[in-house]
Amino acid sequence: MLGNACLFHRIDDIYRCYDELMGVLDQFVERGMHCLLAVIPGKLTPEMASYIRRNGNFSVFQHGVLHANRGTPARRDEFPADIARETMTAELQGGKLRLEDMLGSRVEGYVPPWNFTSGPALQVLEGLGFRYLSAGNAVLPTALRTLPARVDTLASYRPVRVAPVEHVEKHLRKEVAARGTAGLLYHVKDIPPDEMPWLGNVIRRAAPLTVPPGLWPVFLESRSAA
Ligand SMILES: [Zn+2]
């Protein structure tokens, strides 16, 4: 059913419009490509919400609530196990409702800030009606269907280092060979503005293998729990 489509794109830390980000998002729109946006509900501006509402090829997963670290410097997590369950529930539900209200559609997926959250937080997400989780490597057992985004567009963040497009493609191929699918992760604010043509090249070359907007629901249902 999915044919060659085995890649998805996930852009993190979405909440406000700025030139570089809008340039990247517009490329997805112009190419008719699907893109998963990890949106921070507590910071989402009406301007960005309205842009997302206007463009049907984006899907939205909730990205924390305020994207604030309450874990440790070594294990950053907005909802570590020591936060009271009632607090977790109220905050995560508040974020979900705000997103749904501003976007005018249901939000059923979650991307934890720093790609990790605790076991109790995963249980709270299940209880709130979330069905999908896109995180990193360290996913704890959960009933949520998982779609990890393990391949980063940047080779390194400190210092920022861009890898040749061929390297990104090699990582994607390895991931597809191992797991059948791959997710490509973008933190646009960390990518130097003069590297935007390079990023455009990455997007263009990934286009033929990208899950199209119309097949996104099928792709989601093909994922299994962790
Ligand atoms: Zn983030």
UniProtKB/TrEMBL annotation:
Q: Which SUPFAM superfamilies match?
A: Glycoside hydrolase/deacetylase
Which InterPro entries does the UniProt record give?
A: Glyco_hydro/deAcase_b/a-brl
Please give the name of this protein: Polysaccharide deacetylase
Q: Look up and give the organism this protein is from.
A: Labrys wisconsinensis
Supply the source organism's classification: Bacteria, Pseudomonadati, Pseudomonadota, Alphaproteobacteria, Hyphomicrobiales
